[in-house]
Design goal:
75% of the residues lie in helices and 1% in strands. It is mainly α and 344 residues long. The chain has a two-stranded antiparallel sheet. Helix 1 (2-30) packs across helix 7 (184-204). The N and C termini lie far apart (54 Å).
Length: 344
């Protein structure tokens, strides 16, 4: 399956780049993102290239599954995930063009994530067998909706989604193919989305010529969340927590900080770790490079945890991952001047 996955990555990258170039004139005319309180850009910039990323993901994943002669179950699983991703892409497209209210955005998210949780995972797979199945799947749906929005909120500077989601997706493609029973759908969807983000990356490098927009960040969060959920259901919960740990830490610690200050947490802000890092003096490129390196370290720890698959190793890798994220976040928020200081 290695050759088919590599083909999928390359095909998705080429398709994504071609589609972004074809869409650019329309995005410049109809989909400009204007700076607001949360923005890191100073000038109006086209958004909506996420549509190209998702279309490329769909086409490349379908081709990869066909080349690998995947079974009917894998094709059905991938079809459910991609249909749910299209629903979120449509929701995001409307929101990019004309902002929707909270309920109008929440209902499609609940429907999309619920379909993935119930219909794109093995019926017998359980994370916590002691819980009733209905309760476990309901909690998984709520966690999935939170994760989709987490990825959306984190898409706030150039290249961050390429680095912050691309590395976990690459790891999921490897782990899905190597370790998950009937993991073809997870492997090919992760590989195709990773490739599509690679194809998008030249257009989003600082200073970006185009943004993903909600049309891209919402379905990216869904597909990444699905891959992590499948990995956890396959008996690798620690690895599924380690891979997105920087995103979990950044968004979680920011939410706790805002709640402690009694701030309206649903409103736009610039308090994420990556935003405070740019305010502290790091360039956007330096911030993303550090997140990229951090995510590679997390991916290595996740792979160790998944391949060893023992309680002591899982615990040790989780502790190491938490320490790595804590140190990396502190370095980012302290700024480059503090990073250059040496002990007396």
């Amino acid at each position: 399956m290695v050759a088919e996955i590599l083909f999928t990555v390359a095909a998705a990258a080429a398709l994504s780049a071609a589609l972004v170039m074809a869409m650019m004139p329309l995005l410049r005319r109809y989909a400009l993102a204007r700076p607001n309180a949360r923005s890191s850009h100073a000038l109006p910039t086209p958004q909506g290239a996420g549509l190209a990323v998702i279309l490329a993901t769909m086409l490349a994943a379908g081709a990869g599954l066909a080349l690998a002669a995947a079974g009917e179950g894998a094709v059905r699983e991938a079809g459910v995930v991609l249909a749910a991703a299209l629903l979120l892409a449509a929701t995001g497209a409307f929101d990019d063009l004309r902002p929707l209210g909270p309920l109008a955005k929440l209902m499609p998210q609940l429907l999309a994530v619920g379909c993935v949780v119930w219909f794109a995972t093995p019926a017998e797979a359980r994370l916590f067998p002691a819980l009733p199945l209905l309760l476990e799947r309901a909690l998984a749906t709520l966690a999935g909706v939170w994760f989709v929005n987490l990825v959306n909120f984190m898409d706030g500077i150039d290249w961050i989604t390429v680095a912050g989601c691309g590395v976990p997706l690459a790891a999921l493609a490897v782990l899905g193919a190597a370790l998950l029973p009937q993991g073809e759908a997870a492997a090919f969807l992760s590989a195709s989305l990773c490739g599509a983000l690679i194809g998008f990356s030249p257009f989003n490098k600082p200073v970006a010529r185009v943004f993903l927009g909600d049309v891209g960040s919402l379905p990216v969060g869904l597909i990444l969340g699905y891959g992590l959920y499948r990995l956890a259901l396959g008996g690798h919960l620690a690895a599924a927590l380690i891979l997105p740990l920087y995103y979990l830490w950044d968004s979680g610690s920011t939410l706790v900080r805002r709640l402690a200050r009694r701030e309206p947490f649903w409103k736009a802000h610039r308090l994420h770790v990556y935003q405070r890092a740019t305010d502290a003096g790091w360039s956007v490129t330096a911030v993303v490079a550090q997140i990229f390196i951090l995510d590679i370290g997390l991916a290595l720890l996740a792979c160790i945890s998944a391949w060893q698959s023992s309680v002591p190793v899982s615990a040790a890798t989780l502790v190491a991952a938490a320490a790595l994220v804590g140190l990396g976040s502190k370095r980012l928020t302290d700024g480059p001047s503090a990073a250059r200081e040496t002990p007396a």
